[in-house]
Amino acid sequence: MQLFKAQYSSEYFMNRLWYYFLLVPFCLSAQIDESDTLNIKANLSLTGFWQGGNVETLIFRASSAVSFKPWKKGVFKTQNSYVYQEFGKEKADEDILSLNFLYINPERRIYPLFLGFISTNFRRKIDVRYLAGAGVSFQVLKKKENWLKFSISTEYEGTSFSDNNFNFSQYDGSQNINTFRATLWVNGKYHLIKDKLILGHESYFQPSLQYGNNYRWRSDISLELPVWRFLNLRVNYLNTFESVVIEGQKQGDQFLTFGFTFKSY
Question: What is d(CA 265, CA 256) in angstroms, rounded to the nearest whole number?
Answer without folding.
Answer: 26
